[in-house]
Amino acid sequence: MDTSAARSAVERYEEQFPTFSDARECALVKTLIEAADSENIDKFTDEVKKYDSISRIDQWLTTILLQIKKRLQEGEEVDLT
Prior knowledge:
mainly alpha
C-alpha cells in the first residue's frame, strides 16, 4: 500500500495553510495514513469513531472512509489521495 502521495498532500497543505497543522482534521488524516500503512484496521476504525464522537462526519466522508476500510480489510491497494 502506497500512502506517500497522501503524506505529500498533507505536507503541502501544512505548508500552504500553517493553521491546518493544529487542526483536528490534520491529526485525523495523519493517524489514518499511519493506520493504513500498518494495515491496522482497528486503529483506523477507532480514530474515525473518536473523531465522529466530537464532530459528526457527513455522509459523503463516511462513504469514503468505509470504502478505504473495506479495501484495507481485503488487502487491496488504497489510494488515499
